[in-house]
Design goal:
By secondary structure, this protein is mostly beta strands. The protein is built from two helices and 54 strands.
Length: 521
């Protein structure tokens, strides 16, 4: 066939537009060796640059190794690279990526390996050192798949990209133990962008599986595995409508299994072991909404945390602001707070939170579930419902909380109390059970910590201690505190019983002290 400029004649025929020509080239596969890429070359940077800019679909020789001594920077679109199991060998020292693709829409890279030359001793992670195999900037519709990288800080970085997929990427890093800057090492780092998917990442001996910085919207991170990580397993900063699912972390002793900041983010079906903290959701930023919160709508559900040094799950303050409308539901937390102290399986510093149907087994920290606000900034309207706690020092504690509902929880084997209230007001503690091996009270709500206006009703335990002068107490087992000991204030509900000395009174109204009616001598 006659060729012109090494292109088939029918492609170069008169009237062919540039876009038609590019589309035709993209259907033709060429081996990179046709551009001078060679196993024997000391530096294939120029040859690979020519190949990447050629417009042809590219394939590497199967399983071969090619040295690079110079970083490569590309700006072409519609690049399609099949590594065919070949390995790029880094033979230079630099804080820049080996391959950087900028404004390269429709980029496809697959089946490629990389051997870096970084070491633990030389590692000094920083935001200015993107030591990655591949970095893609300001590009859309990217596909990076089946990439294997060793001895690098990063496998892949995508920056300001959208509608991109990074799948089945493996990083064997250099951080066998913790080192400052470990958070600047991950299998895939995302710097802003929207509608991106990270799936099937495997990270070992590095900082994180994935780190997402700046404003990241609608990111999905799924079905990833991390082992011996020196920072967080998965970290999303300033996330909005992000989904983190199916993450397995085995060892992140200096960080969290999953940490997400922002709003409307969901973490589910994850399993983490041996982390400092299991899961964390917070708000983000210094600008509060009309409710005074910097984040809302985050969810942690159907997750497992084992052997966490401190907390199993936290929904806490970020940038000195609370978040709101958090859901922590159907999680299993085993052997949390192994370092003891004031830690808990679940910590909540958020308004309008729902903590429901979680199972806590063997927490060595001070509390199983800890809901806490501050003097002058009470945590509001938390629902703690249907949780089961076994082998805890104390089951549920609230401090500086108002209008909470604590209902239908079961505490088995507690060294102190099943439920303790401190500086808690106008809350309902209803139908909780703390019978089996609970050393203290099923509910402990005394005047020592200024608890007022709470309703303690229908709880079952071995003992109960409630200040009935300032709280409503009714239908508990045992009924010791169901009786008020004074009638110097109006009844709190009709049918309330008071016993002053040997005289018993019952209320027929709630308007004044005159609504107390004597029924015995």
């Amino acid at each position: 066939m006659k060729k012109t400029n090494n292109l088939p004649f029918e492609i170069r025929k008169k009237g062919t537009s540039n876009s038609e020509l590019a589309a035709s080239l993209a259907d033709i596969a060429k081996n990179v060796t046709e551009f001078g890429v060679s196993e024997s070359a000391s530096d294939n940077a120029t040859s690979l640059t020519n190949a990447f800019n050629s417009g042809f679909k590219l394939i590497f020789p199967k399983g071969k190794q090619f040295k690079i001594q110079t970083p490569i920077s590309i700006t072409s679109k519609n690049i399609d690279i099949d590594g065919n199991g070949a390995t790029i060998v880094q033979d230079f020292v630099s804080d820049t990526p080996i391959f950087q693709f900028t404004t390269c829409d429709n980029l496809v890279i697959r089946n490629l390996k990389c051997t870096g030359n970084e070491t633990y001793t030389a590692f000094a992670g920083a935001d200015t050192k993107p030591n990655s195999f591949i970095k893609v900037v300001s590009s859309n519709n990217i596909s990076i798949k089946s990439i294997s990288v060793t001895q690098k800080s990063y496998a892949v970085i995508i920056s300001s990209c959208s509608y991109s997929r990074v799948e089945d990427v493996t990083l064997q890093g250099v951080l066998t133990t913790y080192k400052t800057g470990a958070n600047y090492s991950s299998c895939c780092r995302v710097e802003s962008g929207t509608n991106n998917i990270l799936r099937g990442l495997i990270a070992k001996d590095c900082g994180t599986i994935s780190t997402s910085l700046s404003v990241t919207e609608r990111l999905i991170v799924s079905d990833c595995v991390g082992e011996n990580l020196q920072d967080n397993g998965v970290y999303v900063s300033s996330g909005n409508q992000c989904i983190i699912k199916g993450i397995i972390v085995n060892g992140a002793a200096n960080g969290m299994g999953v940490k997400v900041r922002g709003s409307y983010n969901e973490v589910f079906n994850c399993n983490v072991t041996g982390c400092q903290n299991g899961y964390s959701v917070t708000g983000n930023g210094l600008t509060p909404d009309s409710f005074g919160a910097n984040g809302y709508g985050n969810i942690i559900s159907n997750c497992i945390a084992r052997n966490c040094l401190q907390y199993g799950i936290t929904a806490s303050i970020q940038d000195n602001l609370y978040q709101r409308n958090v859901k922590i539901t159907n999680n299993t937390l085993i052997d949390c707070a192994t370092t003891g102290g004031s830690f808990s399986a679940i910590l909540v510093q958020a308004n309008f939170a729902e903590i429901t149907n979680n199972q806590i087994i063997n927490c060595d920290g001070a509390y199983g579930i800890y809901i806490v606000g501050a003097s002058g900034a009470l945590t509001k309207e938390c629902h703690v419902v249907g949780n089961t706690l076994t082998d805890v020092l104390e089951g549920i504690r609230t401090v500086y909380v108002t209008r909470a509902i604590i209902k239908d929880n079961i505490v088995n084997t507690a060294t102190t109390h099943a439920i303790e209230l401190r500086f808690t007001t106008d809350s309902l503690v209803n139908e909780n059970i703390g019978v089996e091996n609970v050393t203290g009270n099923v509910v402990y709500c005394t005047s020592t910590y200024t608890n007022t206006g709470n309703t303690i009703r229908g709880n079952k335990g071995n003992t109960i201690s409630v200040d009935s002068a300032t709280n409503t107490v009714m239908n508990n087992t045992p009924p010791t505190n169901d009786l008020k000991t004074a009638i110097t204030s109006a009844p709190q509900y009709i049918g309330q019983v008071a016993k002053v000395g040997t005289i018993t009174y019952i209320s027929v109204g709630t308007a004044s002290t005159g609504d107390w009616i004597q029924v015995s001598n």
